[in-house]
Write a structure and sequence with these properties.
alpha/beta; binds flavin mononucleotide; single chain; two-stranded antiparallel sheet; globular; 20% strand
Length: 209
């Protein structure tokens, strides 16, 4: 049985572009995987903490040497890691915030990037430990950051996600970008018309599969 982990990070709901697209992805995935299981992780209601000295200390302590307090410090991280391991496939709804990922997604990444759990260092350098997973990133932004344009260098979302997920071993990655969403806010574009090509791009992923 396949399992999909859905990670959303937009503070908006009805008006969110990334949530609309992740929902479209879920519906298509469910059709393709009628017996599949979906795990949903909404980062805007997960109340994740920043990693602090106690967290880093606990993470860097060998598993069987951790104190009860250290185990407790890592509890949330362990839960998030459990979700990552349980799923074969991930989909992320990602709004661009200030040219990067939303702070709640960064908090989640800090919680799941754990030595000995999602990456290790060996003689050959770093090794990602989340093997055999695939991820789709559905990115919404107010502006457009197409390759070759002046604005492309401002896009720290896709390059960052590529690097950090590659680092933890998730190298099977797909990126779908819905740029230019500011036209919705200014009333220059109609929502259905704006979303259509992106919805079709998602559907086509499943037709091709
Ligand atoms: C706090 C905040 C910061 C934003 N920063 C950027 C930005 O740096 N570049 C950009 O193109 N759009 C930016 N936007 C616009 C969003 O990327 C756009 O509204 C997009 O649709 C967000 O995804 P969502 O609809 O799923 O929330 C920002 C929006 C918010 C709320």
């Amino acid at each position: 049985m396949s399992t999909l982990l859905v990670v959303n990070s937009s503070p908006f709901h009805e008006t969110s572009v990334s949530r609309h697209l992740s929902e479209e992805f879920i519906q298509n995935w469910k059709q393709a995987n009628p017996n599949g299981r979906v795990i949903t992780r909404d980062l805007t209601t997960s109340d994740l903490k920043t990693v602090d000295a106690a967290w880093v200390g606990a993470s860097n302590t060998a598993k069987d040497a951790r104190t009860a307090e250290q185990k407790q410090v890592l509890e949330v991280s362990d839960t998030l890691l459990g979700e990552l391991r349980a799923a074969d496939e991930y989909v992320f709804g990602v709004p661009m915030h200030n040219f990067g990922v939303p702070s709640v997604l960064k908090l989640w990444i800090d919680q799941i990037a754990r030595v000995g759990e999602t990456f290790s260092y060996g003689e050959g350098g770093p090794k990602g430990l989340l093997q055999g997973k695939k991820a789709t990133f559905l990115i919404a932004s107010g502006g457009a950051y197409d390759a070759g344009t002046v604005m492309a260098s401002y896009n720290h979302v896709e390059p960052y996600l590529r690097s950090v997920f590659g680092f933890v071993g998730v190298t099977d990655q797909k990126f779908l970008s819905a740029g230019g969403a500011s036209a919705l806010m200014s009333g220059q574009a109609d929502r259905a018309t704006f979303l259509k090509p992106h919805v079709e791009a998602i559907r086509s992923q499943f037709v091709a599969a």
